[in-house]
Write a structure and sequence with these properties.
single chain; alpha+beta; 6-stranded antiparallel beta barrel; 5-stranded antiparallel β-sheet; 22 strands; elongated
Length: about 400
C-alpha cells in the first residue's frame, strides 16, 4: 500500500511538473512580442504616358512677306491690341529693330537700378565680381555663335551686374547721363509693320494644320482605338505659317494608360503633368474622363487650365503624370487594432504595453501609411516600437523582462 501510494504521489508530481512546463512554454510563446519601429515612408505614384493635346485655337491670318521678328514668347498671353510681331523688308532692318529693343531694355533696367531701394542686392561686392566674370564669358560665347538675341540679353545681364557693383562701391551715384544717351539713340521711328491677332489668347509659333479639327468637342466621344490612330500620325510644324492663338485657357490631354497603372486613375483625381525633356515646371490637372478597356487598359482625359510653352507648342507629347505623394509612418497591416471604435496600434513602452491611435493616409498591399503627429502623446510617433505579433494585449499590460 505504501509502495502504491508512493508511486501514485510520484506520478502526480511528474504530471504536475509536466503540465507546469507545458504551461510555461505555452505562456512564453503566446506572450512573446515581435515589434517593428514606425518609420517615415513616402509613396510616389506616377505613370509615363504618350498623349494628344486638345485645345481651342486658331491660326493667325497673315499674308505678308519679309523678315519677321516675334515680340512674344511661346505661351505668352496677349490682348488683341498687343503687337505679336514686327515684319521688316530686310534682315538688316530686323537686326536694327533688335538692337533698338536692346537699347530700350537697357534704359529701363538702369532706371530700375537707379530707383531701387533694395540695398541688399548691391551690397555683396565679391559675389557681384564673380557674377560679372561669369557673364563676360557667356557674352563672349554668344558673340562667337553670332546669336544676336542672346548677345542682347547677356549684355543686359552684364549691365545690371556692373551697375549694382558701381553703386555698391560708390564708383557711380546714378545713371542719368547714360539713360539720356540711350534715349537719344531711341529717337525716330523703329520701322517695321506690326502684326496683331483678331482675338485675345496665348501665342505659339507651332501650327500643324489641325487647329480647327482637334477641338474640345471631340473629348466626350473619343475612344481608345481612335486615339491610337491620332497618336500614330505625324504633326510637323508648318514652316510657312505665321503662328496661332490659343483662345481658351482650358485644354485637354488624352492618353491610354497601361493595365498595371490603370488602378492609379479615377475620375476627379488631381494630378501633375510634367512634359518629359522640358525645362518648364509641371502643371496641375484633373482627370475628367476614364474609360476602362476590355484588355485592362484605360482611356484617360485630363483637363488643365494652366498654360505655358509646353501646353501650346505640341500636338503629341511624352508626359509624366504624377499623383499626390503620400508621406507618413509605415506600419504593418497586421499591427492595426480597433479599440472602442478607435483605430490604433499597441506599442512597447518600457515594461508595459500602450495603445496609440493612428490616422491612416494610404493603404498599401501589406502596410498602412499613418499621419505623423509630432509631439502627440496618444498618437503614433516616429520610432515607436509597434507590436506586430502578440496576444492578449491591452493598454497598460505589463511586459515581463
Amino acid at each position: 500500500m505504501n509502495t502504491f501510494t508512493t508511486k501514485l504521489a510520484t506520478l502526480v508530481l511528474v504530471l504536475f511538473i509536466l503540465i507546469f512546463a507545458i504551461y510555461q512554454g505555452w505562456r512564453g510563446l503566446n506572450e512573446s512580442y515581435r515589434t517593428e519601429s514606425a518609420y517615415e515612408y513616402e509613396i510616389a505614384k506616377y505613370c509615363n504616358t504618350e498623349g494628344l493635346l486638345i485645345r481651342t485655337e486658331e491660326e493667325i491670318p497673315w499674308e505678308g512677306s519679309g523678315q519677321v521678328r516675334y515680340l512674344l514668347e511661346e505661351g505668352e498671353k496677349f490682348r488683341r491690341d498687343t503687337p505679336i510681331a514686327q515684319v521688316f523688308s530686310s534682315q538688316e532692318e530686323a537686326e536694327e529693330a533688335a538692337r533698338r529693343e536692346g537699347i530700350r531694355q537697357e534704359r529701363d533696367l538702369l532706371e530700375r537700378i537707379q530707383h531701387s531701394t533694395d540695398t541688399s542686392r548691391t551690397a555683396d561686392v565679391e559675389t557681384l565680381n564673380r557674377e560679372i566674370a561669369l557673364t563676360l564669358r557667356e557674352l563672349t560665347q554668344s558673340a562667337a555663335q553670332k546669336d544676336l538675341e542672346e548677345v542682347i540679353q547677356t549684355h543686359l545681364t552684364l549691365v545690371e551686374k556692373i551697375g549694382r557693383q558701381q553703386l555698391a562701391t560708390g564708383q557711380n551715384t546714378g545713371f542719368g547721363e547714360r539713360i539720356r544717351e540711350l534715349e537719344d539713340q531711341l529717337s525716330g521711328s523703329g520701322g517695321g509693320q506690326k502684326v496683331y491677332s483678331p482675338k485675345t489668347g496665348y501665342f505659339s509659333r507651332y501650327v500643324d494644320g489641325y487647329e480647327e479639327a482637334y477641338t474640345p468637342d471631340m473629348v466626350e466621344d473619343l475612344d481608345a482605338a481612335s486615339l491610337r490612330e491620332l497618336l500614330d500620325q505625324e504633326y510637323p510644324n508648318d514652316p510657312d505659317s505665321f503662328g496661332k492663338s490659343v483662345t481658351d485657357f482650358t485644354w485637354y490631354y488624352a492618353t491610354i494608360i497601361p493595365k498595371e497603372s490603370a488602378e492609379f486613375f479615377y475620375s476627379g483625381a488631381n494630378v501633375e503633368l510634367d512634359f518629359i525633356g522640358s525645362g518648364e515646371p509641371a502643371v496641375p490637372g484633373k482627370v475628367v474622363r476614364l474609360h476602362q478597356e476590355e484588355n485592362g487598359e484605360a482611356l484617360v482625359v485630363i483637363r488643365s487650365t494652366s498654360v505655358n510653352a509646353d501646353t501650346v507648342s505640341h500636338r503629341t507629347a511624352s508626359v509624366k503624370v504624377s499623383f499626390q505623394n503620400y508621406k507618413g509612418l509605415r506600419i504593418a497591416q497586421k499591427a492595426l487594432r480597433i479599440v472602442n471604435g478607435e483605430k490604433g496600434v499597441y506599442i512597447r513602452s518600457g515594461y508595459s504595453v500602450r495603445f496609440k491611435k493612428v490616422d491612416i493616409l494610404y493603404t498599401g498591399p501589406d502596410y498602412y501609411l499613418c499621419r505623423v503627429q509630432y509631439g502627440s502623446t496618444d498618437q503614433l510617433n516616429l520610432f515607436d516600437e509597434v507590436i506586430v505579433e502578440g496576444t492578449d494585449l491591452y493598454d497598460g499590460k505589463p511586459i515581463d523582462t
